[in-house]
Amino acid sequence: MSLALRNLQRAVPLRRALLRQRLQAVRGALGVQAFDLGVVCVDNRKIQQMNRVYREQDTPTDVLSFPFHENLKAGEIPQPNFPDDYNLGDIFLGVEFILQQCKEDEDYYDILTVTATHGLCHLLGFTHSTEAEWQKMYQKEKQVLQELNKHMGTRLQPLSRGLF
Fold first, then answer.
1. Is residue 43 helix, strand or coil?
2. Residue span of the signal peptide, if any (predicted)?
3. Which of these, 72, 22, 19, 13, lies nearest to 43 by C-alpha position?
């Protein structure tokens, strides 16, 4: 189905075609191409405001995920009963924050891809509140990114590595 990619910020130049291509590859690796997905790129001010409202954290962050299907088990693909339910949800990427966190030797679009993969995993029920949950999420991110690495010639690593 569709991938809606919106850029609602002006702090960071964004090559949407490249990001869209990579997001489509991530969706393919996760096997969720049949689902709609919204990805919204925002600046520090907006992501901080959202983080304050939804997570009670008054600080910018890299990604916030809002699943359409709640209470999925980690890695579970939704089984919609109606066509309108073929939706994964929305991911908000704090692109300004992500750029500020990039190390000198890191490619910005690689980090965006890794961060979006992390956000998509959250839409599929993965969390990292405990070490056991983190292990599942880490393994899924690693699997997806290894597949992307084969096709794109990159060396992407999971966002959640070293969390526990």
1. coil
2. none
3. 13
